[in-house]
Design goal:
The complex is a heterodimer of chains A (374) and B (258).
Chain A lengths: L1 H9 L1 H26 L3 H22 L4 H25 L4 H24 L11 H4 L7 H20 L1 H9 L1 H6 L4 H19 L8 H15 L3 H25 L5 H19 L4 H29 L8 E2 H6 L7 H11 L2 E3 L4 E4 L1 H9 L2 H4 L2
Chain B lengths: L12 E10 L2 E11 L4 E5 L6 H8 L7 E6 L2 E2 L7 E4 L13 H6 L3 H4 L7 H13 L15 H13 L5 E5 L7 H16 L3 E5 L6 H4 L2 E6 L1 E7 H4 L2 H8 L7 H9 L1
Parallel strand pairs in B: 3-8, 3-9, 6-7, 7-8
Antiparallel strand pairs in B: 1-2, 1-4, 4-5, 9-10
Helix pairs in contact in B: 4-5, 5-6
The chains are: A mainly alpha (374), B alpha/beta (258).
């Protein structure tokens, strides 16, 4: 494995490919954050799928697999899909989700039909056009990486320049509008930036899975931070690492397309974040259980104290059975008693009888008024 | 508010012939409204009366079918900086990854214009506004951790940093605690005392007389507008709400007289 890694990084071609994957990651991580923050994750999905007919048409017109025409074709048809969605939702009673679903299937379906048609043509030029479906990073050459870099630089510059405006657009566009910012222009700018990220991801990740490259890093990053700046940077990092790892994986094992390999990496990170981040599923479950245990302990402590006071002696012992009967507690009193014993607040005297220790009595008095009333 | 032709003072807000429609549904019909500077005005009316639309269309956020809005005598589009806006609290996602102070800072973006970033001065301004709404200690807090009342205070602070002369508020008291309501009323009254103009969509008819000097009663068309003591009566409310209100201002006054 190490040998393989050394070989990968020392080889010029491999370095080019990895550089391309890393740049793509940075750009899609940053740009994808905006799709997620604007709650437009699905628009990214539609746009990437909708790029396919543009790719094939561009090839049919130009006749060779030239990168620039293909990029332009892809961008135009992605933008056209968004335009169609807006047109449909604004002029009919069809809701956005239905419009997006239709646009995705119509454009992607058309793309597949064209692709099949082109592949039947008696011409060797079209070979490899289907690689745009799932991506093939091995095909990246220096020129491709240069274009990825330039397009990415454009996208990142726009984000950097309009950072504050984009934040307004995501959080409160109406408020931004009242301050004189053109929300329409900003909306188009964000769309342009997302399209450029999709276009440069076509070769490496492919149209089918490119949307995950936009969304998953942003979702993962959001789990770890509540600051938009950190979120964007973290998303870029997550996507870059996934891009490089995915490319290495697909190069290391025969016949794994790059797109799926990259997406598996990014999904693993996203799932891990959703489950284990400070606000993640398991962390919250754990905190929940912990506080429930604490509250039950206070409950039992208080009950023991109340019962003992009836005998004018805070240290008076009572049986576990009585504690459990005293009210309908609905939980395992013994478990709480053992936990309290471990903390030194109660002690067991003989058969199933328990009483408060001195520190237990102090602890009861220290409970907040709210807890005392519980 | 009712245009007495001889009044030489330019109103803070003048709405002329304003009509707004969503599709084939008319939401606001031919509204004429003049709001004198330094007054505190409630906009009331039943659900769907167009209260929010009025606030939004004054600021050009929804297209007007007809009508003109001027602020201090000049078209709104040239007077944006004179108007600050407190949208409905529920109109944004409070889970957005940002802090309280950064949210308030957004109020300075208009003065900054395109591309220029907020700096130290803007930060100080935001902190000052947070102090006014008694939220300074929450400056670095995530907005997702705020209660409803705190969210509303943050929105008010964001409007305060705009240092405008006209404040348009959309239901500033909706779903906030009593302390926050009092605090907001106090701040708004201070603004008015300082010569600012406040126009707020208001729901609770019980507090209208206590909070506001003037009122605009709306139901698609403008039912009545003027001083609270002149036009806030059951006749006008019946016109706007139909039989759907059980609130009769006269009864309250009568009881007070006893």
């Amino acid at each position: 494995m190490l040998e393989f890694a050394v070989e990968l990084f020392s080889d010029y071609t491999a370095r080019t490919i990895l550089l391309g994957a890393a740049s793509l990651g940075v750009v899609s991580g940053v740009v994808g954050s905006y799709a997620v923050l604007r709650k437009q994750s699905l628009v990214g999905d539609v746009m990437s799928h909708a790029a396919l007919p543009g790719i094939v048409l561009a090839f049919m017109i130009v006749g060779v697999k030239e990168q620039l025409p293909i990029f332009i074709g892809a961008a135009l048809s992605a933008v056209l899909a968004v335009f169609v969605i807006n047109l449909v939702t604004e002029n009919s009673r069809i809701k956005t989700d239905s419009a997006m679903g239709m646009a995705l299937s119509v454009f992607f379906g058309l793309g597949l039909v064209l692709l099949t048609y082109v592949q039947r043509m008696p011409d060797a030029n079209q070979a490899g056009l289907d690689k745009f479906l799932f991506g093939q990073a091995e095909a990246l050459v220096e020129k491709d990486v240069l274009i990825i870099g330039l397009t990415g630089f454009f996208a990142l510059s726009v984000v950097g320049l309009f950072w504050k405006e984009f934040k307004l657009l995501c959080f409160d566009p109406d408020f931004g509008g009242t301050m004189g910012f053109s929300i329409k222009a900003l909306d188009m700018l964000v769309t342009a930036v997302i399209v450029s990220a999709i276009v440069i991801g076509l070769q490496t990740v492919g149209v089918v899975l490119m949307s995950s490259m936009l969304i998953a890093p942003a979702v993962a990053a959001r789990q770890w931070t509540g600051n938009m700046g950190s979120m964007v940077i973290l998303a870029a990092l997550v996507a870059a690492v996934s891009g490089v790892t995915g490319v290495a994986l697909s190069a290391g094992f025969e016949n794994i397309p790059t797109g799926p390999a990259v997406i598996v990496c990014v999904s693993v990170i996203a799932f891990f974040s959703i489950l284990f981040s400070p606000n993640g599923f398991f962390t919250l479950k754990f905190k929940d259980a912990q506080s429930r245990r604490e509250i039950r302990k206070d409950y039992v402590l208080k009950a023991l104290h109340d019962l003992a006071l009836e005998h004018d002696d805070p240290g008076y012992a009572h049986s576990e059975r009585l504690l459990a009967l005293g009210s309908e507690r609905g939980f395992n009193v013994r478990k709480s008693l053992f936990a309290l014993q471990a903390a030194g607040y109660v002690e067991s005297v003989g058969e199933d009888n328990w009483r408060l220790t001195q520190s237990g009595i102090r602890e009861v008095k220290g409970l907040s008024p709210l807890e005392k009333n519980r | 508010m009712s245009g007495k032709g001889e009044n030489p003072v330019t109103p803070a807000v003048r709405v002329t012939d304003l009509t707004v429609a969503y599709g084939d549904k008319t939401v606001l019909w031919d509204i004429d409204l003049e709001i004198p500077g330094g007054s505190m005005v409630a906009v009331v009316g039943p659900n769907g009366a167009g209260k929010t639309t009025l606030i939004k269309s004054i600021q050009g956020l929804v297209p007007r079918v007809a009508g003109v809005v001027s602020i201090h005598g000049r078209p709104y589009e040239k007077q944006r900086k004179e108007v600050s806006y407190v949208p409905q609290r529920g109109s944004v996602d409070w889970d957005f990854p940002t802090s309280v102070v950064d949210t308030v800072k957004m109020g300075t973006y208009g003065d900054l214009g395109w591309i220029r970033r907020p700096g130290r001065r803007e930060h100080e301004k935001a902190l000052g506004a947070l102090e006014k709404v008694d939220m300074l200690e929450f400056a670095q807090r995530q907005i997702s951790q705020l209660s409803g009342g705190q969210q509303q205070r943050v929105f008010l602070a964001r409007a305060l940093v705009q240092s405008a002369s006209v404040y348009l508020l959309d239901e500033p008291f909706q779903g906030v605690d009593a302390t926050t309501e009092k605090a907001i009323v106090t701040i708004l009254k201070e603004l008015v005392a300082g010569g600012k103009t406040v126009l707020a969509v208001h729901h609770d008819l019980n507090t209208v007389s206590e909070y506001y000097e003037r009122i605009a009663i709306l139901n698609v068309g403008l039912v009545a507008a003027g001083r609270v003591e002149d036009i806030f009566n059951s006749e006008n409310l019946m016109k706007a709400y139909g039989g759907k209100t059980s609130f009769f201002p006269e009864r309250k006054t009568a009881r007070r007289a006893v």
